[in-house]
């Protein structure tokens, strides 16, 4: 890479939201300070909007870092949850005993826990990312959370981060109650032409650069025109421009290097005009004039009947084959029906969206595409979600090495459920409490074959190689939790969740290793008390 060439200690323009690279220019610092003030003083619901790639996630990370220690932060990273799932997710993040509880019971538990924290001088703030993707019903549930209050203070602060479409949702008449509860609204603007040089130099300095201006004036102007001030685009173009300069053995970035970066980048059609340099526009115009002159010359010499402009008959379209035949689906049997296609082809299953996300009471069990002796006694599935298997290499998460050894696909296939449970317990005890894991599902079944078949489905069919299983209790009934790997940072876990959600009809949940351990410890305490 170009790090040594330019005297850098790390990549300066990574698009990962690292708080060490937070740029305070162009009102970003002022917005952050206003957010901190609003949260500390309990100012109801707060809204932050901005275009895709403008830095909302970075601002969210900075808010978490800068809040006082007495404020506890809860993240809601999956905007597709329904209103019931939101309640269970928030309560779960607060480590409340929600197993086997009804929604109203969980709300009472949540209210009581917030009052207890308030009495101890604590505050709780809920940070919701991608709020524009939430359904109207879920947004309404969020509003009801703002009713949890004492006579003088809000018990739960709420900060909504979303794209401009969030404002469109809030302008719907049915959302006027939520809109009225928003006491502070901030809009994150794109960077201006005058602040882009400061942004580039700030990121370079933060990465260890000590030289003079690295990007010349022409390069900065071109980056400004193409990026339209969107921070993510600026970072992508700057990174690729540095790589082009390194390949050219240059020690500064010029217009030619930015042009090479543009050629290697993909932006929306709205910037297509800006991405063409004036030199290329002139070339294209000359080409059009030449073609027009040739057509005019042919018309003069042969008459209009001899000049054919693209009159070739269009060949019939060739059907495009499906990328994959339907892989063996797995069934999600829920207390609430999940609308999904019951199709035998992967293409049909992929084309029909799931209308209702899974609830917290979801029961997960695997089946094959055709009934067999092993599956004939399983309950009738409510819905079948066909899973198209993508390349395994695209789904390899960055996980701790200790999560890799016990669960290679070949070795795991030969283990009994008891052996799998013991290995997973040993693995769980070896992980740090502040590490993250991903909850893939919950299996409510006493049939060991059902559980092993589901684990095999996750490992072999979906290509996930760090699947762990643990046993717990829910309303005095055993269930088995299935989690994926150990992640040292929250960002890595969230990236994996987004990947799983995008490629399959899964709704994995972010968990902490400490939270899973506490869940198992609570079940063990109940078991000891019941035996006395």
Automatic annotation (TrEMBL):
<dbReference type="GO" id="GO:0042834">
    <property type="term" value="F:peptidoglycan binding"/>
</dbReference>
<keyword id="KW-0472">Membrane</keyword>
<dbReference type="InterPro" id="IPR003593">
    <property type="entry name" value="AAA+_ATPase"/>
</dbReference>
<dbReference type="Pfam" id="PF05036">
    <property type="entry name" value="SPOR"/>
</dbReference>
<dbReference type="InterPro" id="IPR052026">
    <property type="entry name" value="ExeA_AAA_ATPase_DNA-bind"/>
</dbReference>
<dbReference type="GO" id="GO:0016887">
    <property type="term" value="F:ATP hydrolysis activity"/>
</dbReference>
<protein>
    <recommendedName>
        <fullName>AAA+ ATPase domain-containing protein</fullName>
    </recommendedName>
</protein>
<keyword id="KW-0812">Transmembrane</keyword>
<feature type="transmembrane region" description="Helical">
    <location>
        <begin position="281"/>
        <end position="299"/>
    </location>
</feature>
<dbReference type="InterPro" id="IPR049945">
    <property type="entry name" value="AAA_22"/>
</dbReference>
<feature type="domain" description="AAA+ ATPase">
    <location>
        <begin position="42"/>
        <end position="186"/>
    </location>
</feature>
<dbReference type="InterPro" id="IPR036680">
    <property type="entry name" value="SPOR-like_sf"/>
</dbReference>
<dbReference type="InterPro" id="IPR007730">
    <property type="entry name" value="SPOR-like_dom"/>
</dbReference>
<keyword id="KW-1133">Transmembrane helix</keyword>
<dbReference type="InterPro" id="IPR027417">
    <property type="entry name" value="P-loop_NTPase"/>
</dbReference>
<dbReference type="Pfam" id="PF13401">
    <property type="entry name" value="AAA_22"/>
</dbReference>
